[in-house]
Structures are given as structure tokens and as C-alpha cells.
Write a structure and sequence with these properties.
With 303 residues, the protein is an alpha/beta fold. The chain contains nine helices and eleven strands. The protein has a single domain, classed as Rossmann fold. The strands form three sheets. It has a seven-stranded mixed beta sheet with strand order 3-2-1-4-5-11-10, sandwiched between helices. It has a two-stranded antiparallel sheet with strand order 6-7. α3 links the parallel β1 and β2. 43% of the residues are buried.
Amino acid sequence: MDKGGWNALAAWRDRRMGERGDLWHRAIIDPTLLSVLGQVRGLRILDLGCGNGYLTRRWARLGAAESVGVDASTASLRFARRRERNHPSGARFLHGNAARLPEFEDGRFDRVVAHMSLMDIEDGAGAIREAGRVLAPQGRFVFSISHPCFDIDVRSVWVVERHLNESTVSRKVTGYRKERTVRIPWDISGKRTAYTLAYHRPLSVYLRYLRESGFAVIRMEEPSPRREAIRKSPQGPFMVEIPLHLIVEAVHRPLPVRSAPSRVSSPASRTTGRTPGAVARRSGSRGRKRGSDSRRRGSTPGS
């Protein structure tokens, strides 16, 4: 069942993304994400919400020891697998739910990446917990999302004010604090509009999910548009001033298990106090109707 609505967009998205990503990915989001991720040679990488798998295959070609893409959209996976058959890279693609990944054992991967997919996953907390579970000790979780402060589904718009020869650009935002599910329109042809589900969460909610799953944030970036985006996208010049995307890197440090207070009343027990708890890994687990511009990744691994 494609609850998020991404199967209907799969063919259109595959044509746009190709092997390099569309304009918004290759000229705005991807350069910063790839810089944060760094060298991948010899690493085991899980790509959550892989879409047509163009980055999954890229990491395999760059020497990743293992590069696995997971997506909930069966149609998107068909395109990913077709591309892999036509031009083998060594990447693998699996159908799955980002919040429940029983096919992967604890500590399987060195890196987990969720590129423009986490805001499309209904159980965001579960997806982050699973990312922590399948990461090796000190593994890194890197994700990109629509900026929760400046790009709130259909409740945020650009405001351009012109006075004489000067222009001022600002962003009008409403409803930031309220978590919300919204249908996002995609103009996939002159006569057809498709819809997907997105889940707005304030930045503090993402940080709480990370903290509760044993992650410590070590880096946050707000991508700036490259020259190609500034030249070709009407919104490119605006994003020089106000970012529409956020990239987060977090290191996984499994939470300690607290032991119960000792009930032994001997002097020795009163001196030592509590028994140190052992460290254990938890085992639980918008695109917009914008014409030629598109900034979403692909599909949602949410349900």
C-alpha cells in the first residue's frame, strides 16, 4: 500500500532525477549533503527513502563496502533496480518501512542517510530510532529535510517588495509550532496534479527524537544555491538570503541503561552506591506545485 502517494510520481521523478538529480538537488541540496557525508570508500551505507537510487549507486561506484537503498514505494524501486541492471554499480535496493527494518541486524551500517525523505515519513521518531539501531557504535546519521523554520509545506511563501530600484525578499510563515500532516501538490504535467503526504515538525521535535534515540548533533548546514540554481530557478536568488533546506549530521552514542539502586544495607554497599549501568544499544525500533522547479528526493519510506 502506497499511503504516501509516491507510486504515482515514480516515473515522473525518475525522469527528472536521472543519475545526477534534478536542478534543486544537484545545484542546491546535494553538494552540501555530500560534503557533510564525506568519503564513503570502505563504508557500509544505508539510504533511507532512496527513490530512484541515484545516490545509492553513486556511493557504490565510489567504493562503499555496501550501499543499500530502502524505499516504501514499489514503483520507485522498479526504476532504481532497472537503472542498476542497465548500469551495475553493486548497490542493492529493498522494499521496506524506515521505522521497521527487521532485515538489518543491530550495528550493520557505518552511515545512515535520509536525503529529503524524513519529513515524508509518518513515524519520524521510529525512523530515527531504527537509524540508531542499525548504526555501528559511533556511526553517523546524516539527513536533509525541508527547513522546518522557513519551508512549512503550503503555509510558507516568498514575499518580494520592490521600492524604486531596490527589492527586499522575505519569507512569510505561519503555523510553525503545530505538527501537521498535509497533502502536497505536484504539477507533473499541464493537466495532471498528484499529491503526496508530508509531516511538518518543528525543529525542536527533530532534536528531541534524536536525543531520545541516543544521537548527538555535531553539525548543521543550510545549503546555499550554486550558480546554476541562481541562474535557472526563479527562487534561486531568494535562497541566497533565506535557506529552504536543512542538513543535520548526528553521531550515535547508545544510551546507558540505568540500574536500580542497591537494596543491600551493608557498609560496603552504602559506600559504592549504585551499580554502574551497562551501555546497551536500543533494539527497538515538498515539493510544491512549482512548475519546473522540484526539490524533493523521491519517495517516502514511511509506511
